[in-house]
Amino acid sequence: MNHEISVILPFFNAENTLKRAIESILNQRYPDFELLLVDNLSSDGSIQIAQKFASEDKRIRLLKESKPGVANAMNCGLQNSRGSVIARMDADDVSFPNRLEKQLQFLRENPDIGLVGSTVRYFPHNKNTVGFKRFVSWVNSFCSPVQIELNRFVEIPVVNPTIMFRREIFEKYGGCIHGDFPEDYEMQLRYLEAGIKMEKIEEPLLEWHDYSTRLTRTDERYSTDAFFKVKARYFKKWSEKNNPFHPVIWVWGAGRKTRQRAKLLEKEGLSLEGFIDVVKSKTSVKKVLHFEEIPNSGKMFVVSMVTNPGAGQQIKEFLKKRNYIEGEDFILMG
User: Which residues are in the Glycosyltransferase 2-like domain (predicted)?
Assistant: First the structure.
């Protein structure tokens, strides 16, 4: 039997949270879905939990992926899915009962939108949460397709376990790619580069649980440097279409880390004219402009790569006062 929605839930050693995650899908108000549980080499009691649910509900199919990594598990689910829309779910999280219903209705009513997510309600489970809280506050602050497109190079613009997307997108542009980068972020950048419109429903439809074991905390593919590598690759493609001075750019931020990350842009073929900073003597490797010296809009394209908390917003506000237009004269990348 084919269902309209395929929910893909990969899991690896998730015996403490898997039951709650599965039940949150089975308790959805919209019942026409299949739930694909993808075991990715679990060695704890997760598989027994999944088997029990699968034996009790015909909508559940239990799959096994022998290649390690969530990208491979997600692709296993995609290749075995039958629904016309695909929803993602994590073994740590909890979907609200109206999630599938709301997102499916949104896609039906907005045929120009290919992928829909939502804001999230954040549940920390460890002490080191400042960065995650900051990220959740940021990612919950914008929902429109234009805002998602403009924020794509800051961080992943849609929280991955909230996404629901049309099957034809996967069939045309592929699923997850396994590599030394965050696979969920790369997939969203690839879909955005292809012109897929994304939007978020402006209400939380998922409890996002932050455990110390979460991949974003433990896997080097989710390090800041890994994010910047994949950003650089897709920014080059974006710059070709949107930067009026392509391949020439100015980078805001001249500190050591920013200079290292700017080299990733040069490796992709972008021409770094110089840096903008609060201190002109930060480096002698390139020309450095004090930020008050930048010319009026229309004479340079600025890439802000400063990652200090709040700095991006301050830079944006400063540039807008100088009549720089985001997406035309500058872009945030950090």
Answer: 6-174
Tokens of 285: 């490797």
The CATH superfamily assigned to 5-222 is Spore Coat Polysaccharide Biosynthesis Protein SpsA; Chain A (3.90.550.10)
- In this structure, which topology does domain 243-332 adopt according to CATH? Rossmann fold (3.40.50)
133-144 per-position pLDDT tens digit: 999 999 999 999
Rounded to 5 degrees, φ, ψ at 261 are -70, -30
